[in-house]
Amino acid sequence: MKNFINYARWRMNTMINDNNKDTWCVNAEHALAGNNDGTTKICCMIDQTSQTSMRGNLIASTRVPVLGVDSIEDHFNRQEFASVRQALGKGQRHPACRHCWQEEDANRKSKRQRDNERYLHEMKWDGREEYKGLTKIELNLGNLCNIKCRTCHPAISSKWMKEYHEVYEAKNGSLYKEWSETMKRYHQSYDNESPFWPDIETHLSTLKQFDFYGGEPFLSEKMWKLLSKAVDKGYSKDIELHYNTNGTTWPDAEIEAWKDFKQINLSFSIDGIGEQFEYMRFPAKWDVVERTLEKARNFRDAHGNMQISWCVTLSTLNIYNLPEVLDEYYTKYSDMGMYLNLVHGPLHYNIDIIPDRYKDTIISKLESIPKEYESVWYQLPGIINFIKNGTPNEKEFNKLFETTEKHDEYRDQSFSKTFPEYSDIIGYDKNK
Question: Whole-prediction pTM value?
Fold first, then answer.
């Protein structure tokens, strides 16, 4: 593997210190995130609007790099990433990181803070040397998926494509075959024949962490083959894996490779329970996910190198029903972790835009969550403050109603029947 010579020439040699402790980020210094279409960013929380603006200002004449076409090294060395690293290293809040600043201003622990804590813990207690160059990589492995979550879209889920085309594109005379051709970029970088895979193999000796997302990452054949390579070459013992999975599949044979890795962090995306889960993550079935959770628990207990958690993504669709999700979790799954995630976009699903007239009722429901749910209550004040500090947006909230109605009709579902109390509160009574 080539050394990161270009990066070394212009990067600031920054480590966290008293001057930059409120801005420095391990992800900016040592990570790379691959989008579904093969473009890249520093991490999953980066504001790509700001990133695009930076690209226009800094290198307007340069083509946007794509994984599988341009090398991983070229991506890591991008000039607009340098401007973020330099700003954070100087103690300056860069606008591209605004999602983390927004959460931190609400006294909610951001990804920057969470990942920094983990990094510093490893430096202090795990005996590792300081990270050098790229050591963490996040891969959104195309859009291959077997479900179509309400807050998702075709660029992330292939299962969404037919529905999206029929609801939004066909009325404009678009033919599905032609439209689907425009969507190929959302999987090409991670197809089986993509040059990306031999490129990433050359970095296995220095990478310490993989974060795999989708689509549904368990459906990626090449991801499993990459893990097999890491095992065969003896690198797996130093590598941690993190997954977000929808819980609908469990490839038993491939998963056996996990026992040879340093740590597996397996996060299940769960946005509701029972019927509400099936509404949010159509056409997944809750009983299938329950069986997958049990298989994961059995693997963890057998091998000891796995942590399991629930990732509950909160949106304007399910925020009111969080207490019911937590009751199920604490009754059956409290031996697993719990993380409350937020939708930042599309904006009509962002709880930041909830109109003021509904806030008190929603917050009151959240505050009814039992205080003995301690692992959640350290996160809840940040969620509540996020709602309180939000910017109400009637136009976007009406768009929530319009979007929900369209897809309820297409899927033969009913939000008002599935979430009756919440529907009454916000005045949504379609198909009741």
Answer: 0.86
Tokens of 402: 């319009």
Residues 97-129: tens digit of each pLDDT: 999 999 999 888 999 998 888 777 665 545 455
Pairing of strands 240-245, 209-213: parallel
3-state SS record for the chain: CCCCHHHHHHCCCCCCCCCCCCCCCHHHHHEEEECCCCCEECCCCCCHHHHHHHHHHHCCCCCCCCECCECHHHHHCCHHHHHHHHHHHCCCCCHHHHHHHHHHHCCCCCHHHHHHHHHHHHHHHCCCCCCCCCCEEEEECCCCCCCCCCCCCCCCCHHHHHHHHHHHHHHHCCCHHHHHHHCHHHCHHHCCCCCHHHHHHCCCCCCCEEEEECCCHHHCHHHHHHHHHHHHCCCHHHCEEEEEECCCCCCHHHHHHHHHCCEEEEEEECCCCCHHHHHHCCCCCHHHHHHHHHHHHHHHHHHCCEEEEEEEEECCCCHHHHHHHHHHHHHHCCCCEEEEEECCCCHHHCHHHCCHHHHHHHHHHHHCCCCCCHHHHCCHHHHHHHHHCCCCCHHHHHHHHHHHHHHHHHHCCCHHHHCHHHHHHHCCCCCC
pLDDT digits (tens, 9 = 90+) for 227-270: 999 999 999 999 999 999 999 999 999 999 999 999 999 999 99
Mean pLDDT value across the chain: 90
- Is the pLDDT confidence value at 57 over 80? no
CB of 7 closer than 8 Å to CB of 77: yes
pLDDT in tens, 187-228: 999 999 999 999 999 999 999 999 999 999 999 999 999 999
